[in-house]
């Protein structure tokens, strides 16, 4: 399975509203970050959670975000960051 | 079966609660749901009461001491440490740990970076290594504040991270489970692997504290 993104790529999490078992928390939607690593193909939790197969697999990435991007009023240090797992169908190239 | 549920937290607001406090009432609804599903599974012969009991027994026998052994090995064996950081699942297999169906991601604390683990969507935790998560780990206030104001949360646990170190939060939201590799405390160069395990606490492997420095 090919991965659309590579480590170091700048990506944005799509800002869409989707009901159901979604693993993309609201606080990262619409935010830009950098691919930290490719985790690999994983079953799609959005169908797996409802007793389906989870197929086709979705490529999973770890994405690094600057805390100041996630929270404009963040009170920590400028280079503090957060890493989270995001499936490919939630990511777009910046 | 996934341990995620449908509590999709929007953590854009802060809470007044402190992570160590027990200020959240038990969910009657969730308890009723658990009972209903459990009884149905037994009635339909999917699982037996003894299998359920056995699974709980196995889960509760896992203790953070296992994690401490893994970290101590990484402190004394550079090859093992590199394997733990690059292929966590394979590295812990030699300790009898099977991470399936999840994968292990070990994150290393250094002079530059301090790592902190949280699961904002529910309470994902490396149970195969650390056992049952602490109550505060599952609380809404820890889960929402650890991503929003990690340095404040850390200070409430008595952990002050200097300004020149990056705080890196890991939201355990999907298929990986996270274990922090704490820094080896100073003054322990001649310590045996076994003695080192005494310095490695559960909380230091979640990242809310550092490993114990002897004499402090």
Q: Architecture of the largest domain in chain B in CATH?
A: Alpha-Beta Complex
Mean pLDDT of chain B: 90
Uncertain ranges of chain B:
1-15
The percentage helix of chain B is: 40-55%
Structural class of chain B: alpha/beta
> Which consecutive residue ranges of chain A, at least 5 long each, have pLDDT under 50?
none
What is the general shape of chain A?
globular
CATH architecture of chain A: Roll
How is this structure best described in words?
The complex is a heterodimer of chains A (about 90) and B (about 220). Chain A is mostly beta strands and about 90 residues long. In chain A, about 10% of the residues lie in helices and about 35% in strands. Chain A has one domain (about 10-95): SH3 type barrels, CATH 2.30.30.50. Chain A contains 2 helices and 5 strands, in the order E-E-H-E-H-E-E. Chain A has a 5-stranded antiparallel β-sheet with strand order 4-3-2-1-5. Chain A is globular, with a radius of gyration of 14 Å. The two termini of chain A are about 20 Å apart. Chain B is of the alpha/beta class and about 220 residues long. Chain B has 2 domains: about 25-60, no CATH class; about 60-205, Alpha-Beta Complex (Nitrile Hydratase, Chain A), CATH 3.90.330. Helices cover about 40% and strands about 10% of the residues of chain B. In chain B, strands 1-4 form a two-stranded parallel sheet. Chain B has a two-stranded parallel sheet with strand order 2-3. In chain B, helix 3 crosses helix 4 and helix 8 packs across helix 9. Chain B is globular, with a radius of gyration of 18 Å. The N and C termini of chain B lie far apart (about 45 Å).
């Amino acid at each position: 399975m090919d991965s659309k993104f590579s480590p170091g790529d700048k990506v944005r999490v799509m800002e869409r509203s989707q009901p159901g078992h979604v693993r993309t928390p609201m606080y990262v939607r619409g935010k830009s970050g950098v691919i930290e690593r490719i985790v690999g193909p994983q079953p799609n939790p959005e169908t797996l959670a409802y007793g389906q197969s989870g197929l086709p697999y979705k490529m999973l990435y770890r994405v690094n975000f600057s805390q100041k991007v996630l929270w404009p009023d963040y009170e920590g240090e400028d280079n503090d960051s957060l890493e989270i797992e995001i499936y490919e169908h939630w990511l777009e190239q910046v | 079966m996934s341990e995620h549920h449908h509590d999709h937290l929007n953590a854009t607001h802060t809470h007044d609660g402190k992570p160590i406090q027990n200020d959240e009432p038990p969910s009657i609804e969730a308890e009723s749901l658990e009972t209903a599903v459990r009884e149905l599974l037994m009635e339909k012969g999917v699982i037996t009461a003894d299998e359920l009991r056995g699974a709980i027994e196995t889960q509760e026998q896992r203790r953070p001491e296992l994690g401490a052994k893994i970290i101590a090995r990484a402190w004394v064996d550079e090859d093992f440490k590199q394997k733990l950081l690059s292929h966590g699942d394979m590295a812990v297999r030699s300790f009898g740990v099977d991470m399936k169906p999840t994968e292990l991601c070990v994150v290393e604390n250094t002079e530059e970076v301090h790592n902190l683990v949280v699961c904002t969507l529910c309470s994902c935790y490396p149970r195969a290594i650390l056992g049952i998560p602490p109550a505060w780990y599952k609380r809404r206030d820890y889960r929402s504040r650890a991503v929003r104001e990690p340095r404040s949360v850390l200070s409430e646990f008595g952990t002050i991270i200097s300004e020149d170190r990056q705080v890196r939060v890991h939201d355990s939201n999907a298929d990986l489970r996270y274990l922090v590799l704490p820094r080896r405390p100073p003054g322990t160069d001649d310590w045996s692997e076994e003695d080192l395990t005494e310095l490695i606490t559960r909380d230091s492997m979640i990242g809310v504290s550092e490993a114990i420095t002897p004499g402090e």
